[in-house]
Amino acid sequence: MEYLTKQEASVVRERKTVIIERVLDSLYKTHKKITPQLLVDSAVSPKNELHTFFVWNDVEAGAKYRLAQATAMILATRFVCYLKDAGKKNAINMADIRPIRKFLPYKDQGFCPRVEVLADKEARNEVIERKKSVLRSWCDSVVDIEELLDIRQTILSVV
């Protein structure tokens, strides 16, 4: 595996991404780590390149944060899915029980119960495509980890 900078690979990126990467690199060089708090603390100064990328009005930021919290609550809601084995009687094996999201995004209507979303053919296909995209993204994120090569190739051959 060989690593190239995006510049060496001639990859063109959006200006905002370039600015963010430059600031993150600088923070890492200075502090030997990057944390969300460190990033916010550095961006407080209007002279910082990232200052305009943040919402500094506390009322507006508070409203956005509450929406993010509400979304996290919806996504954290789970119910149990039992994977039935046709050959087994009614005995439930705890290893066959999986907690899964109770609510899923549904078209432009927000979130609806999983059962309803999956019953709608179009919405079900959207869920499947999103999940495949997550798998592709995971495969991209582990491209440099040799121990996961077989899993990565198997996933990519299916999705």
Q: What report would you give on this structure?
A:
With 159 residues, the chain is mainly alpha-helical. It folds into three domains: 1-54, no CATH class; 56-101, no CATH class; 104-159, no CATH class. Helices cover 51% and strands 10% of the residues. The strands form two sheets. The protein has a two-stranded antiparallel ribbon. Strands 3-4 form a two-stranded antiparallel sheet. Strand 3 (103-105) and strand 4 (111-113) form a beta hairpin. Helix 5 (121-141) packs antiparallel against helix 6. The mean pLDDT is 89.
Give me the secondary-structure topology.
Layout: H1 15-31, H2 36-43, H3 58-76, E1 78-82, E2 97-101, E3 103-105, E4 111-113, H4 114-119, H5 121-141, H6 149-158
Antiparallel strand pairs: 1-2, 3-4
Helix pairs in contact: 5-6
Globally, the shape reads extended
Q: How far is the N terminus from the C terminus? A: 24 Å
DSSP strand (E) fraction? 5-15%
Please mark out the parts with pLDDT under 50 across 5 or more consecutive residues, or reply none: none
Rg over alpha carbons: 22 Å
> How many individual β-strands?
4
Give helix and strand order, one letter per element, not per position: HHHEEEEHHH
**In which order are the strands of the major sheet placed?**
1-2
Mean pLDDT over the residues: 89
| Largest sheet entry | 2 strands, antiparallel
What is the number of domains? Answer: 3
Number of helices: 6
Would you tell me the structural class of the helices and strands? mainly alpha
Question: Fraction of residues in helices?
Answer: 40-55%
